[in-house]
Amino acid sequence: MENRNGLVVGAEATLATGAAEREAAASLTKDLPKGASLGADKNYDAEAFVESLTQRGIEPHVAVDGTVSKLGKVGKTAVPPQVAASLGCAISMRKRKRIEESFGWSKIVGGLMQLKARGLDKVKAIFAFALVAYDLVRLPKLLRTTDEVCLAAGR
Questions:
Q1: What is the DSSP string of 13-50?
Q2: CA–CA gap between residue 7 and residue 23 (Å, rounded)
Q3: Residue/partner pairs of 14-17 with CB below 8 Å, 24 or more apart
Q4: pTM above 0.85, yes or no
Q5: 16-30, 40-54, 83-97, 134-148: which range is least confident on average?
Q6: From the CB of residue 146, how many other CB atoms can be counted at a distance below 10 Å?
Q7: Of 15, 69, 21, 67, whose CA–CA distance to 46 is shortest?
Q8: Three-state SS for 144?
Q9: Rounded CA gap, 40 and 44, in Å?
Q10: Which residue in 60, 79, 52 sits closest to 68, CA to CA?
Q11: Per DSSP, what are the bridge partners of residue 60?
Q12: Which residues contact 50 (CB under 8 A, 6 or more apart)?
């Protein structure tokens, strides 16, 4: 998902193995340019995942899986302290909830609450279709907002 408009730009359904989410995120982000950032929840606060992002020049805006003391020190985490304290990371953490909105919509409206299909290939297709439908529903709202901004600016 991109943070500015909340549109889903990539999706992957996987088998639940414990590390499958991080593996899918690594493959979905392989084409991100250096200097990009990646926001993620606590499940992605794993040393190997954060290190691979850092090596590729992607800033890991990952929710810290640990407690913060009164002195501002974080417990054990793979996220570098300068990244965790950055303004960009704080913005990514606030925008992170937008991806949950797409999942909620796809479960309730998109029919993913109880799938009738079996098999990973069928589930992948239904999952991708539901998220594309979510983006299509969001687009008119985004275009209307863009038009209003352009009209107000006199363009």
A1: -----SSHHHHHHHHHTTTPPTT-EEEE-GGG--HHHH
A2: 21
A3: 14/120, 15/120
A4: no
A5: 134-148
A6: 11
A7: 21
A8: helix
A9: 6
A10: 79
A11: 38
A12: 44, 60, 62, 78, 79
Token pair, residue 36, equals 């990009």
For residue 84, pLDDT over 90 is answered with no
Q: Kindly state the tokens that stand for 152.
A: 């107000």
**The two three-digit tokens of residue 1, written as one number:** 């998902």
Site of tokens 């109880």:
114
Q: Could you give the residue ranges of the DSSP H alpha helices within 43-109?
A: 47-55, 81-84, 87-95, 97-108
From the CA atom positions of the chain, what is the Rg in Å?
18
Across 3-7, 10-14, 54-58, least confident range: 3-7
| Residue 77 structure tokens | 């985490």
